[in-house]
Amino acid sequence: MSFIKFDRYVDRHARSFTERLQNLCRMPSVAARGSGMRVIAETVEQSMQRIGIGTRSFRVGSGYPIIYGECGGGPKTFVVYGHYDVQPVGQLSDWSSGPFAATIEDGKLYARGAANSKGDLVARLAAVEAYQKTFGKLPVTLRFIIEGEDGLGSPSLYRFTAENAELLKADGCLWDEGSSDTKETPIISLGFKGITFLELRAFGPRSDLHSKWGAIVPNPAWRLVQALATITSPKGVITIDGFSSHIAPISDEDSEVLRAIELDEAGLKREFRIGGWVRAMKGPMLVKEHIFGPTCTICGIHTGHTEAGAKTVLPSMAMARLDFRLVPDLTAQIVVGLLREHLDIRGFKDIEIIELGSAPLAKSSAKSRVARAVIESTAEVYGKPPLIYPMDPSSGPVGAVCGVSEPPTPIASFGTGYAGSNPHGPNENIRVEDFLKSIKLIGRVIHKLAASKSKAAIDPHEDSKSTAPLPKVKTEPRI
Fold first, then answer.
1. Going by C-beta distance under 8 Å and a sequence separation of 6 or more, which residues neighbour residue 430?
2. d(C-alpha 143, C-alpha 126), whole Å
3. Of 359, 387, 413, which one is at a domain's C-terminal end?
4. 221 and 237 in one domain?
């Protein structure tokens, strides 16, 4: 099928599509704050309805709305995941323009959520519109699941999918995470690392004291720092007792895939403005660790007086937030249990561990119908074969969406970002050209999902095979 007509439609409506994205990015939707969430959910649902997607809005308890939408037809069904919430903006002074101004400068749209992932959401809706206007009814059934709690660990989504598993039955899933690398090669991920997000707390006196008491009153800030220092070595190796014994060896198939991946080490170091990598890694070892290495990251520490001006206090409490990225065969339960035992043995029984949220890892086959359609379409649009990551270093609620069936639904993830998008950081942005390319890419994916034959023609179970299980894990964030 020729996509000349489709591409022309996208080009003619490029300004309109871009303005739709700007309008959505101008709506603050920080899940952690809660303001404006109902309004943006209604806006997204109306946008879906305007292009012929039948929708239903679900509320789980006091959670933010989950929008379910369905359109198209044909023998194959695919889930499209997205979210309308965004991360907190951080320090406003770090932004060159307002985080919700959605300004375009030098071909880049700057806004919190542009890359993660309102750009992906608007691009997919625009592709459905363009396909229907140029070719007619979609040749496959698309089931959209759009949530508003990605930044909170997706608690409502886990409960929703557990109660509505029939809405998630599909031959594959299109996820909304991805970018091109520093060499402009698009990256397609076939899974995600898992994650567990924790808070560690140490307590001291009933309230902050004058620091003159520092010689005789225990300081919880020092207590927490000393506990944290036992979790990793100075070189960044996780030193929790028994941790490494739970990590599965990398399979021969994945080792072969890793050999085809090359990180632009010099370009990334320039982009991040760093002098080197952890443990001075490079080459194949760096790639292997990036994709299959577990992590323990201190995401933030808070204690005592951190505002402007001097204030000599001995803090009453110290808190650190950590996330662990999980690889086969690590689970959130294993990590929390090992960490508790590790701290207890070292005399830190007083350090409190609070579980804020978790998600299991996801990992599927490159031979699935959805993976092949995305890989082939990406090569057509970008003029070069994409990099295939067997597992993305980031995480998401894939288990909620793709783990409701057995075997798990295969996944392919891609997005509108590029190496300089800086999602979660200041000046988050996407290039308008990449946004428009993504629309053209999704149009081709829709066609190939219906037309292409996966290896299922030989092995009828190949489309749903996964190289790792996706357990149904619920999460109860307490952020």
1. 108, 109, 114, 115, 119, 416, 417, 418, 421
2. 15
3. 359
4. yes
Q: What is the CATH number of the domain that holds 139?
A: 3.40.630.10
pTM value? 0.85
The continuous run of DSSP H or E covering 335 comes out as helix 332-345
pLDDT of 271 reads 86
Q: How far apart are CA 49 and CA 442, in angstroms?
A: 19
Domain that holds residue 368: 4-193+361-468
Residues 6+ apart with CB under 8 A from 232: 238, 239, 296
Q: Residue 437 has what pLDDT? A: 97
Q: Where are the beta strands (DSSP E) in 59-157?
A: 66-72, 77-83, 103-105, 108-110, 141-147
Which residues sit opposite 246 in a β-bridge?
none
Q: What is the pLDDT of residue 410?
A: 96
Q: Are strands 108-110 and 103-105 parallel, antiparallel or unpaired?
A: antiparallel
d(CA 215, CA 187): 55
Instruction: Give the pLDDT of residue 290.
Output: 96
Mean pLDDT by 10 residues, the chain (479 residues): 93 98 97 93 98 96 96 95 96 95 98 97 98 97 97 92 93 94 93 95 97 97 98 96 96 90 91 94 96 96 94 97 96 97 98 93 91 97 94 91 87 95 96 98 97 46 41 33
Indicate if 203 and 181 belong to the same structural domain. no
Reduced to 3 states, what is the DSSP secondary structure of residue 21? helix
Q: What does the block give as tokens for 152? A: 């909170």
The SS3 of residue 42 is helix
Rounded Cα–Cα distance for residues 408 and 466 (Å):
6
24 lies in some domain: yes
Residue 43 backbone class (left: φ over 0; alpha: ψ -120 to 50; beta: rest)? alpha
Q: Give first-to-last CA distance, the chain, whole Å.
A: 49
